[in-house]
Every structure is written in C-alpha cells, then in structure tokens.
Amino acid sequence: MEMALTAWCFFSLACLGAFHVAALSFRLLAYLALCLRPPKDLRRRYGAWAVVTGPTSGIGRSISLELARLGLNVVLVGRDAAKLRDMSETISRTHGVKTKTVLFDLSHASTAQGLMVLGSPSADDIKSQYYTKRYAEHLSKSPSPVNLSVPD
C-alpha cells in the first residue's frame, strides 16, 4: 500500500514538473519567435508619411525617431515652433527623410479658438480631411489595412 502511494506521488510530481517545463518552453519559443521575426515594411503597408503628435519630448520623440529610422517621412505636430524645427532638423540630418512641421495645440482642436486658428481649409487641409474620413470609415468596417491614396 505504501509503495502504491509513493509511486502515485512520484507520478503526480513528475507530471506537474513536465507541465511546468512545457509551459516555460512555450513561453521561450513565443519570445524567440517575436524577437526573430522580420520587421514589417511600414512604408509599403501604410504609406510614405507618418503623423506624430508631441514629437519634441518623451514617447512622441522616440516614436518619431524610430519611424524616421524605418524610412518613413514624418509630419511633426506640436506647440513649440523652435522645438519642432530642432526635431525636424535632427530627423532630416540623422535619417535622411523628409519632415514637415505643423504648429498647432491639439487641446484647442474642438474649441472656438482652435477653429479660428484652423481658418478656412486649404487644398492640403481638404486632402487631410479626406484621409481622416477614409481612415475613420475603414476603422468602422474592418480590421484590414486601408488604402489612403487620393484619387486624381
């Protein structure tokens, strides 16, 4: 009887250990697959330009530098013209991509003050609104990539 109980305990612990080793192996393989996969071609998938808000410090700065490193042209949207200019020059000099700066405080976007700053729309504003509308329509329909090309 004691022998059967000892064998049962040994078998239970061996199964528990095997399950734990399998779980750790699965986690390791998942991590390696994530690290070793080829990077996505963002330019082909989403287009040549990326818009980054708050690009002069923190996460926005890191994201704008990383997107430029990946070869995307960058539109920088921020409140401080001097900092935007410095960031634009840094990105252009370091990564050799095109940059555009937009001086705008997004906290005023939906207020009367923000609408006054925006003024009447130019051709570029109309294109931007077209892109935004197409993207919003796309998000409401399906999770697949959207083609944001402007018809001639």
Molecular structure report:
61% of the residues lie in helices and 11% in strands. α3 (58-69) packs parallel to α4. The chain has helices spanning 2-36, 42-46, 58-69, 81-95, 112-118, 123-141; strands at 49-53, 73-78, 99-103. α4 (81-95) links the parallel β2 (73-78) and β3. It is mainly α and 152 residues long. The radius of gyration is 26 Å and the shape is elongated.
Write the layout of secondary structure elements.
Blueprint: H1 2-36, H2 42-46, E1 49-53, H3 58-69, E2 73-78, H4 81-95, E3 99-103, H5 112-118, H6 123-141
Helix pairs in contact: 3-4
Low-confidence stretches: 143-148
Separate helix tally: 6
Give the mean pLDDT.
Answer: 79
Query: Biggest sheet, open or closed, and with what strands and sense?
Result: 3 strands, parallel
Name the beta content range.
5-15%
**Number of separate strands:** 3
What's the quick description here?
Helices cover about 60% and strands about 10% of the residues. With about 150 residues, the protein is mainly alpha-helical.
Can you tag this structure with a few keywords?
152 residues; mainly alpha; three-stranded parallel sheet; 61% helix
